[in-house]
Specification:
The protein is of the alpha/beta class and about 240 residues long. It has eight helices and eleven strands. The termini are close together.
Length: about 240
């Protein structure tokens, strides 16, 4: 079972979450709101790692579907995650947080290369660590990167920030009869094709017994409530 009060978490949110009301790019208001919540959690002594998608700038799979070479498209998507990570670093530092961006794609003119032991050391020193560049390989999503990093840094809990208040039997925006799970297993997620994260990410979490909680990032105080032991959203366990 997961820690009721985790000491180290990995937070994943999509690039689209940074859009706010915009059609493209980053909404500074959304960025600031998420930054304040992350700092509030870090102030409790929780070690925080983050993985941010790049879909607000560029989605590799989308262009690959239109004919671009998939590996090239995914590499462009990885660079988009670096841009989002740098923007989030700036937002956090403006609030006096200590932050490191570590990229799986070598781009050390603007951020550190990802090295697992160094990342853990940053976390132990109380720095917020943003993991950019996905896994560093094409054909893998940032969901898979989040699951992988959570396992590598020995996180107590992986958190997936969404725009709904948990995991549903189907898309609640399209199906008014959809019901929410309070808890479920990774086996149920895979068996019922509940599309909260991609299959690779779910399988990684299942195989390494990494608990996953899905929650509504627009709910004020939700992240703080979760790390303090409140049952918010949906908990997925082995």
């Amino acid at each position: 079972m997961p820690h009721r009060n985790p000491k180290r978490i990995l937070l994943k949110f999509s690039g689209e979450a940074l859009l706010g009301s915009a059609d493209y790019g980053i909404d500074p208001a959304v960025l600031g709101q998420v930054a304040r919540e992350v700092i509030e959690v870090a102030a409790l002594g929780i070690q925080v790692g983050l993985v941010i998608g790049g879909g607000n700038i560029f989605r590799g799979a989308g262009l690959a579907n239109k004919g671009m070479d998939r590996a090239t498209a995914d590499q462009m998507g990885m660079l988009a995650t670096v841009m989002n990570a740098l923007a989030f670093q700036d937002a956090l530092e403006k609030l006096s947080a200590k932050v490191r961006v570590m990229s799986a794609v070598k781009i050390n003119a603007v951020c550190e290369d990802y090295i697992r032991r160094r990342a853990i050391r940053h976390l132990e020193k109380g720095r917020i660590v943003i993991f950019a560049g996905g896994t560093g390989n094409p054909f893998f999503t940032t969901d898979s990167a989040a699951a992988l990093r959570a396992i590598e840094i020995n996180a107590d809990l992986l958190l997936k920030a969404t725009k709904v208040d948990g995991l549903y039997t189907s898309d609640p925006f399209k199906d008014p009869t959809a019901t929410r799970y309070d808890t479920c297993t990774f086996g149920e997620v895979l068996a019922h094709n509940l599309q909260v994260m991609d299959t690779t990410a779910i399988a990684l979490c299942r195989d390494h017994r990494m608990p996953l909680r899905i929650y509504d990032m627009t709910r004020a105080g939700a992240l703080t409530g979760i790390v303090q032991g409140e049952s918010i959203g949906t908990l997925v366990t082995p």
